[in-house]
Amino acid sequence: MTSDREKVRLIFGLKMRQLRVNLQLSTYELAEQTGLSPSYLNEIEKGKKYPKTEKIFVLAKVLGTDYDSMVSLQVNKQLEPVVDLLQSDKLSDLPLSLFGIEPGYFLEIMANAPAKLSAFINTLIEIGRNYDLRVEQFYFSVLRTYQSLHDNYFEDLEAEVASFLSENALPASSTLYAEWLRLILIEKFGCTIEAYDGDTKPALTMLRSVFLPEKNRLLLNKKLSLEQKSFTLAREVGYRQLKITVRPFESSMLEARSFEEVLNNFRASYFARAILIPRDIFLKQLEALFKLNQWQPDRLLAMMEQFSVTPEMFLLRMTNILSSYFGLKELYFLRYNSLPDNRFELSKELHLSKLHTPHGVARNEHYCRRQITVTILNELHEMQQAGTWDGKPICRAQRMTFVSNGNAYFVFSIAKSSPPSAGNSSINIGFPINKDLRKALPFFNDPAIPDVQVGGTCERCPIENCEVRAAAPTILHIQKQKKAAKACIQNLRFE
Q1: Number of CB atoms found within 10 A of residue 67's CB
Q2: Any residues with CB less than 8 A from the CB of 76 and at least 6 apart, and which?
Q3: pLDDT of 363-407, one tens digit each?
């Protein structure tokens, strides 16, 4: 958040820089004429320092203006877009410091072409409005970028977990984690815990938990599974152990009030998963699993069951370890939810290294029914309808090649129901098929794993006579028409 004092410094620095540039003076030349050091002048222009009154008089004289004009918050037309951006607090929505960018540096860049850059920023905002993108979606997008920059592995959080576990030894069985964490919250942090259901608090049934800070009370949904309860309690411990105060109070944020809140929620969640799935134990198990030449989904599920966690917790924790200890820095994580009318929603995604071909789309399109991320949900639904599902997660794998660009991936998926929400979800990790994958996961090439040609969405897919197509390739047809028109115009120009 940019304070009023910071805004004053930044505006003064921008005005001073503009006056200097208009006079074609270098920083060193201005220093010679004012008797001020170049480094000091540089800090003023970047909004880091505000000069004393006598120095402002000196600067004003050399720059051909007066004291009142220098200290006024009024600016000329050229700088108006910059100041409008600063005064609008839109910069506060941009967590620049997270990426090592100072607001002053950002504004300095903007000052070189303020109208153009301001128009660009406003265009992005307008696009967001047109696609009904909420501010929290922007925050989560920034968070994903932040995770990618760090390969989704944070040593400081791993160290905090190690310190916590050295003081609070894990129980012998993961089934005891929930009770262990409950007692820590009560005895160490003075938290009271209360269960609720649809009868006692019907408005909260869609949520897994709610924290009441004024009362230091945690409300837990009675419908939570043991795994969900363990994670919720572990995250509450994380908030306290990490001394986090700016945080959401609901398990699923109803409203993101700041990026700091979103980031802190991620940090506490990372802490929670690292408690439930300790790094050293998990690492040894993954090393043994990845030495196998055959794909063994039952063994993967057995590992997950041992830790008593949900598929999402399990695979998210796996992304931490794979990127840092197995050299698999190019991967993606996707969560799909099944919706009524045989539709599917991509509700969470994370891409490390780059934006991979399997990714979300802004439009209301139909995701490819050939991808394991979707076929496993259809399989689970059919088992539920037939009464053959035993209530345990199912796990499948696939090697898929996108017909649009030839990109090939190995992906494994875990699907289960997702209480207290209705419907099923699939949790997926995918890897580009390259030398790193071949080295790290010998079983990816198991002949028992199917090879499938896939598309992104039905609307963009060129596969003809697809037996599971859910929509016509309308967007693909439009793209082809445009390409044909361009080719025709080019031929007419040079025939």
Answers
A1: 13
A2: 18
A3: 678 889 999 999 999 999 999 999 999 989 999 999 999 998 899
